[in-house]
Design brief:
It is built from four helices and 16 strands. The protein is of the alpha+beta class and 326 residues long. A hairpin with a 2-residue loop joins strand 14 and strand 15.
Length: 326
Amino acid sequence: MSSFRLTSFHHLFRRCYFTNTSNLFYPMEAIQEKAKLADERIQQLKSLIATMGTRQLDPEVYFKVLQEENTRLKSRVQSLVNELSTLENERGVKQEYDFVNKVPKAPTQSTNKPVEISKATGEPAAAVTSTASGEQSENKEKKEKKKKPAKEETAAKPAANTAIDITRFDLRVGKIVSVEKHPDADSLYVEQIDLGEEKPRTVCSGLVKHMPTSDLDQKLVIVLCNLKPAKMRGIMSEGMVMCASTPDKVELLEPPTDSKPGDRVECEGYDCTLPDAQIKKELSDQILPSLSTNDKGEATFKGVLWKVGSGKGVIKSKTLINVPIK
């Protein structure tokens, strides 16, 4: 009896042992099988990747893929534009462009805002605004009116005179009200000459060797008034006394006795009413050679007589005929 029990127990032990042992090794075999399949799949993918460069994608498929991607990107861009527009509208930025249709936005009609009543006065605030805008428009009209005459004056200005003739000279009658020798130049007189202006002009003349002060004081003379002022031994000279001149003798040009300081010199055939405001010595040196006295001692420009305005008569030298004027 005990022998039977021992044999049965032995068979039972072996059955249980080998059954459990086989169950322990089964998972390892499955893992190895799956690993083998994974290696095969990896090899297939490697070969596929290696051959992709030589394969040609179907154009229709490629085009469809691009269209889908383009549609997705457009949708994303429009979403971002909408977000930006919303943020700008919140900040009060006016939208001037339609990014979708790529055209400027049509101006929107402003809505009528409700009239606000001023608490202080009880009057509509819109009335105050309209009054302010009315004042601004009136001010604008006034400014435009002021500007228009300026433009008309500019347009009315004559063209610049480029002639090399007597029209560039501002020649006027003057009266010497005082004369004295230059303190630092033995050959110069310093004269104060009334030219019909607010105050007399100071003019330096190299006449000491040719006449005494008595021949100059209180005399009517002809003065070139627009010659550029220049210092002569420290004194600013503002014009030039015109004289008939030879190397040995110099005489003043004398206007008619009824002339007045400031009377303008005219020359028939030449418009001397608009001389230059100021001329340089270089220009005067080009015009002076055309000035001379005629055989009657009368002052001329290229043979045409000088005359004092308003028909007061000609300008003469006492004795010097057919000589330069300078």
